[in-house]
## 1
Amino acid sequence: MADSRSHKGAQAVLMSTADEIETAFYEALQQADIEKMMALWADDEDVACVHPGGPRLIGHVAIRAAFEAVFANGGVHVTLVQVRRVEGSGCEVHHVLEKVQAVTGDGLRTAYVLASNVYQRTSQGWRMVLHHASPGQQDEMQDMIESSSVLH
Amino acid sequence: MADSRSHKGAQAVLMSTADEIETAFYEALQQADIEKMMALWADDEDVACVHPGGPRLIGHVAIRAAFEAVFANGGVHVTLVQVRRVEGSGCEVHHVLEKVQAVTGDGLRTAYVLASNVYQRTSQGWRMVLHHASPGQQDEMQDMIESSSVLH
């Protein structure tokens, strides 16, 4: 029983920040680990996921089906180039620039993706409630237009 | 002075829910009202906006410049077809289906847009922190894939 509680404690630590959920999300993508992926989402029927150029997927069943289709080809070679955060009380919005690489018939191809990841603190710890991704620009230096670059 | 307090009271009511901010956001779009639009955003340098197919705009200056460019052609004829909400403590994520109509050389054109709107409760009341929009499908009935439609 002590072991069981200790195990639950370890789980709680795993989910103790939005950043840890985000790290686990991209690990699940890289590892094509569907159970790890689905464990990250909040227990809410209206969690949503938009893959680049795709429809909006609402709820665990639709989100799982889409990731299973992606993972049928193996893990996604994705790395985070940049993360910016808007932190609220029990809620974080992360603006993420993803670098995705794939070997195609034309060799190694690189694409950038603009993702908005939203996390809420729930009774189960931090969980993802939204992943909304759009195709980015080709040049990773141009994907964000910041106030400073407009003013100065 | 009583009038001044009364006016402030009305402002506070205006910002008292995420839904009211959302209503004001789409009114500002329809009315091409840049001051009304910018008053809705949280006072945070990392608020972000992604227009369909566009880059990510970070901060008030970049967001304002993009809306001013849109509004130079007048208001946007946009209506909300559907809104679903994930409600957290001090944070709401709205999945919105927008119907946008415009008269072009080919007549009246209709497009659907998938938007994720995120609101946080701040010391100034509810404010928008993210508007992330993507091109939707042509048929408004197909823009969301719900769990029930996959299972049954």
## 2
Amino acid sequence: MKANFNYIQMIDHALSYSKKHHDRFVDELIELLRIPSISTDLSYSNHVAHAADWLVEHLKSLGVNNSKAIQTNGHPIVIGNIEVDPTCPTVLVYGHYDVQPADPLEQWTSPPFEPIIKDGVLFARGACDDKGQFFMHLKALESWMQTTGAPPVNIKFIIEGEEESGSASLPNFISEYRDYLAADVVVISDSSLFAPGIPSITYGLRGMTYIELTLTGPDRDLHSGTYGGAIHNPINALAQLIAQMHDEDHRILIDGFYDRVRPLSADERKSMAALPFESEKWAQEVGVDIPVTESGYSVLEASTSRPTLDCNGIWGGYTDDGAKTVLPSKASAKISMRLVPDQDPDEIAILTRSWLESKVPASMAMEFKVLHGAQPVMINTNSPAMTAATEALNDVYHRPPYFMRIGGSIPVVADFKHLLGLDSVLMGFGLDSDAIHSPNEHFGLDRFAEGIESIIRFHAHYASIEGSK
Amino acid sequence: MKANFNYIQMIDHALSYSKKHHDRFVDELIELLRIPSISTDLSYSNHVAHAADWLVEHLKSLGVNNSKAIQTNGHPIVIGNIEVDPTCPTVLVYGHYDVQPADPLEQWTSPPFEPIIKDGVLFARGACDDKGQFFMHLKALESWMQTTGAPPVNIKFIIEGEEESGSASLPNFISEYRDYLAADVVVISDSSLFAPGIPSITYGLRGMTYIELTLTGPDRDLHSGTYGGAIHNPINALAQLIAQMHDEDHRILIDGFYDRVRPLSADERKSMAALPFESEKWAQEVGVDIPVTESGYSVLEASTSRPTLDCNGIWGGYTDDGAKTVLPSKASAKISMRLVPDQDPDEIAILTRSWLESKVPASMAMEFKVLHGAQPVMINTNSPAMTAATEALNDVYHRPPYFMRIGGSIPVVADFKHLLGLDSVLMGFGLDSDAIHSPNEHFGLDRFAEGIESIIRFHAHYASIEGSK
């Protein structure tokens, strides 16, 4: 009981500090958001490296003196740790300092890398995904350091720069640094609240298989007048292939695609149905007239707990202004499939390739590339860290969090599980309406503050629970 | 008989002149080919205007002193005429000095606007389509002017700069200048020989309806993780629409599409089957393994005398390097339909729109634009001008020309018929393998010389036939 009492006193000091310094915290975040650290576009590599260096300096300024940026085959990974006491539990904080590309630029109301605050909301690429979120962990640490001298848990950081391009370097890095990264739990803030003021903890994530497909018909672009009628057009052929991927019930027709899908349990469906979710309002927010789901599943079920197949991009032929009468040589599409437990991204890639090979017409040469893959994940909701997170969120929001499955992928959660044996606590403070991956990405500064407070409280609860075992 | 004798003497002089000055003719053509007069791209407007001015000056240098470039709402139209004698028949020469865009640039082995000659073949954008071909008419005129002082027929020129972007200004111009353009026949060199050394006269042209289609789902790009599974993807929806446009026999499924199609006559099918055409060689030349046609039609029939539907371009979502997990707001396609008599481009646009409106899913907003249209054409093959052309080609190639239908569109042929009541003689010297509209467009200089000779001989035969009526 003594320990708990102390933690509560300590929390008050740390929380007061974080409130008092809120505006400066935001100013520092804005500085980081100004760096266009787009990892998928190699012409931005210098900016990505700059963001990593900025982070190292910032961690050092907080007292993480051993922080450094480790070079990889891709972008650098920033690490650092504060060891308070070897008998304390250790929290490994994961985040990513890279961001999505900003296109289409013309749809931004303010430039993506010139952050501005409007009515308490911070607009910038990366404001929510993930700079704004992992930065809360740095500020929670600062709040402890500047008040009690140290957090009540050991804290390690691993902040990568390739999450938006598939985290190619991360798995090897985790293996190589497994001793350095040893911890009791991973904490990640890269997900969303269920709704404003309604906390949630994500226990299920979809995985992904992302492919690129190119069909080649004639070996050069042809005149559609001279040849049209006797040459199979690769755009039309590609459209035929894509059209055959779904049936009328929006089920995916790739052979074997659903074989390993773990059905939603009755309990899960019941608890999802009980969530305060309005499909109509949801549709209105994303500007569609009607949601379209796999038959037999609700919007929430279909967008979080069922696998999908979406074209992310398509191109071929003449796409500028005017009417060019070309019969193109090639047509391409980027296609991603969101996966659920127990689908395997490599197996799905093989099934997709086989299916495509069986469907591609003899008139077309097909090129098939796997751009990346990620394992789907389900996490035990009854661990000490989950309990601590539940209590922390209850303290801040005055209600227990919903336990949720989400539709996105955080491949590293699977990596931490498979390579280090660690579960992750996905305690995110975004909102689905934050427009991550879209123009005008934003993050409410109220949630930035709530996140810092939740993390401070989580540290205390987790130290208390693990200490009292 | 006296007249004929004179014509033959005169021909010899004109022909000798054209042979003697061949290399200079080519140098002049190269000068014109250096001007990148791309009409579909407004950023090239200055170059298009430059090409028109160059032509006016060149016509004046040949003795067409009244030549001028007339401004339109689009690009200028170059006119000029030589009136020899009001009792002589009048030939209206049509051509176009604009060219197709040159992309994809990286596939050219030499820059498109830096003409080079390799093994007697001239490589440049526009070498065949149509600068190299209409220029033969100027050099035929020069050959007459510099030897006999005047051609045996009156000659008028109308050379436009918008053929590759739909000839938007031409119909109004023809109406407005109908008196100026009054003639007995139109002669156009913008088509092909049947094969090297095998002349042909085109009597059938396909028309066209060219549309652009955009589907909009969500009002902004969304994250495919957060939303995938409950949002209809506009790329997938567009692929579904395109896929439904053809059945398995490659017939077009738009309701009413074939209603006005004039069936190929038994004679036409017989004469087409007799042409020395090898499907396998044809397929090899365009780099496809197998031709794909509407069931029941040969390659030649399907590519010249049956209507088509081809996607000319498609775009949507993320199309750069890497894997962006976007669920896009929009997807678009450019789609052109080649038409045959008696299909009407406006009616086909309406049928296509209605069909699309009946098929587009409720989850998508559709935008439908008609980019341009052209009437299909069939020409009487027994007119005096056709006979003169037949004789001229027989003189040059020592065999009578094939009468052919071709797959391309020359919308002005329909305009001259409907607005001026004039038939056209389509006497072209290209080859299907000249890569018009593709990288590495070229024109054999042997055909350039044969074309000039054929035109000189046509003038003489036509004057003779019309004079002896």
